[in-house]
Write a structure and sequence with these properties.
The complex is a heterodimer of chains A (115) and B (112). Chain A contains no helices and eleven strands. Chain A is mostly beta strands and 115 residues long. Chain A starts with a strand and ends with a strand. Chain B starts with a strand and ends with a strand. Classes of the chains: A mainly beta (115), B mainly beta (112). Chains A and B meet through strand 4, strand 5, strand 9 and strand 10 of A and strand 4, strand 5, strand 9 and strand 10 of B.
Chain lengths: 115, 112
């Protein structure tokens, strides 16, 4: 158990709809990351928040948005969903930053299926 | 443009033998490297890391080697066990609290 909690674990929704994925980081971790894993793809970085502020942005579509709340939990909002958005969405968190980089800890993921 | 590449999608090894998983990177700013292991229906789990000031880091059966001049790292698992069967992701980051960049993974199958 990494200590990172994601809900829901599974979600099926129709094209054009909007969903919200939720993540609670490990206790004390200030950074939250969102990654997407599609079929045959690696883990694609979407966005990072640090203590409530957006820190880095990756390959996140304009239809997607995220935020981190004062209690440090984060939400990823996916709107105008398309079939190609079907994927595993992982949240990860990190605390201590190694001088050269950081180790992040993943939740179990939210499996989104768009039909 | 893939900055972290795992060129072998899959690898099969007999139980008890050594498993060697390889990873190449292109970004010379990367100085911290990690390996994650992922079982089906679970999130990736941190396995081992190495910073650029080292060329080897060992943790039990797992050893990571870093060759900075070749921009190459490898993960050695010895002896391999059936429970090691999983997808292994290589990841890298630049200095500071920057997001990790992942490879596409190598599926390891350890055959009893």
């Amino acid at each position: 158990d990494s200590g990172v909690t994601q809900t829901p674990k599974h979600l099926i929704t129709a094209t054009g709809q909007r969903v919200t994925l939720r993540c609670s980081p490990r206790s004390g971790d200030l950074s939250v990351y969102w990654y997407q894993q599609s079929l045959d793809q690696g883990l694609q970085f979407l966005i990072q928040y640090y203590n409530g502020e957006e820190r880095a942005k990756g390959n996140i579509l304009e239809r997607f948005s995220a935020q981190q709340f004062p209690d440090l939990h984060s939400e990823l909002n996916l709107s105008s969903l398309e079939l190609g958005d079907s994927a595993l969405y992982f949240c990860a968190s990190s605390g201590y930053t190694h001088p050269s980089g950081n180790t992040i800890y993943f939740g179990e993921g939210s499996w989104l299926t768009v039909v | 443009d893939q900055q972290v590449k795992q060129n072998s999608p899959s690898l099969s090894v007999q139980e008890g033998r050594i498993s060697i998983l390889n990873c190449d990177y292109t970004n010379s700013m990367f100085d911290y490297f990690l390996w994650y292991k992922k079982y089906p229906a679970e999130g990736p789990t941190f396995l081992i890391s190495i910073s650029s000031i080292k060329d080897k880091n060992e943790d039990g059966r797992f050893t990571v080697f870093l060759n900075k001049s070749a921009k190459h790292l490898s993960l050695h698992i010895v002896p391999s066990q059936p429970g090691d069967s999983a997808v292994y992701f290589c990841a890298a980051s630049a200095a500071g609290n920057t997001p990790l960049v992942f490879g596409k993974g190598t599926r390891l199958s350890v055959i009893a």
